[in-house]
Automatic annotation (TrEMBL):
PROSITE patterns: PROKAR_LIPOPROTEIN (PS51257). This is 1-deoxy-D-xylulose 5-phosphate reductoisomerase. Residues 265-382 form the DXP reductoisomerase C-terminal domain. NADPH binds at T15, G16, S17, I18, N45, N128, E130, G209. Keywords: Isoprene biosynthesis, Magnesium, Manganese, Metal-binding, NADP, Oxidoreductase. It catalyses: 2-C-methyl-D-erythritol 4-phosphate + NADP(+) = 1-deoxy-D-xylulose 5-phosphate + NADPH + H(+). Pathway: Isoprenoid biosynthesis; isopentenyl diphosphate biosynthesis via DXP pathway; isopentenyl diphosphate from 1-deoxy-D-xylulose 5-phosphate: step 1/6. Its EC number is 1.1.1.267. Its cofactor is Mg(2+); Mn(2+). 1-deoxy-D-xylulose 5-phosphate binds at K129, S155, E156, S180, H203, S216, N221, K222, E225. The keyword DNA-binding does not apply.
Amino acid sequence: RSQSDPRRISIFGSTGSIGCNTLDVVAHLGGSDSFSICALTGKGNTDLLARQAIACGAEIAVTADENRYTALKAALSGSGVEAAAGPAALIEAAERDTDWCMAGIIGMAGLAPTIAAARRGSDIALANKECLVSAGELFHREIEGGGGRLLPVDSEHNAIHQVFERDQRHSIERIILTASGGPFRTLDAVQMASVTPDMAAAHPNWSMGTKISIDSASMFNKALEMIEAMHLFHMRPDQIEVVVHPQSVIHSMVGYSDGSVLAQLGAPDMRTAIGYSLTYPQRPALPVERLDFASLSRLDFEAPDEERFPSLRLARRAMESGGLSGAVLNGAKEVALEAFIDGSVGFLEMADIVETVMERLGNGGSATSIEAVYEADHAARNMAQELAAGRLSKSMVS
Ligand code: NAD
Ligand code: MG
């Protein structure tokens, strides 16, 4: 392609919260005049996927669900957009030549297509946390091998990327992740034991997908972000701090050896981070809300409570034990979260399940290959499933 050709981009998980925001940013930055859309992907919502693909003139639309191939094909008929379905089709789409890919699929399901796009050499805008949490340095190596850039979209990591002075790396002491504290910040443990999925999905500041919103309520989202930050910025576990900041105005901070702390601030709107990843090192013009400091008037901070939010303690344990601990924590967490959503376990039991799986599987072995990552993930999922179904006692000594 010549320099003057529009950039070729794909959006994995285009039907989700990150995906829809990405399409919105793309439209603001000129749409099909500025970009040529290769692939859009989704899973359940094939009507939305087809509408998106037709509207932006995508080359191919892929649903991860094989059973929805006919529905997608029908919704795209006559449009000229190719239809495909299933996990292998997702990978085939990721292997197409692109300049930039949004990794906006939720969970471990995002790992395989993201690695395929990274190997192909595309820049990866990383919203998905599970790639780094589960595969850590192995994922980095895939990016380096392909030669594309890794641009963090998770708001905290994007904030850190913005204030992380790469040429001053030796004087960076710590990373301070901010956490809103979620909807249960002020509840006691007794109240937390009986919360419902709907209550947990109601995030006070951010509008996001259901699963990440519930993870924010349990602070498993912050737990994943601690591990993500350690890998992304090559820090030691003790260099990653968390502070609760209920207003979500400071998106995260970096502390330097002279005592300076650099922070990135903004309205809680993912389009800022998405736009940054799309035009880096330039900054795009975006219609997001501007901060009005006089009306904000105050910013609050408090220490996180690891008694009520054991997820933070579990993240620290995973970071310190290394190996495939991140894959074990995440695999168990994904299953526990599904079990909470379908009503088979309570809110506080999610952390119990994850802790028990981590105790029994240890660090899951050493991170030698992506296959080893999947094995640790499967082992953790199977055990978490048994625990959630009540077939294994949590107190049983293995
Ligand atoms: P979402 O649930 O709204 O959307 C998820 C997307 O992934 C959808 O397109 C869905 O169809 C697709 N998907 C779901 N399961 C799949 C599977 N098994 N195979 C293939 N595709 C599948 O989620 P979201 O809130 O947009 O989050 C996407 C990712 O970005 C997550 O990893 C999340 O942690 C991260 N993230 C999201 C936000 C946010 O503001 N929503 C912020 C930071 C990070
Ligand atoms: Mg985040």
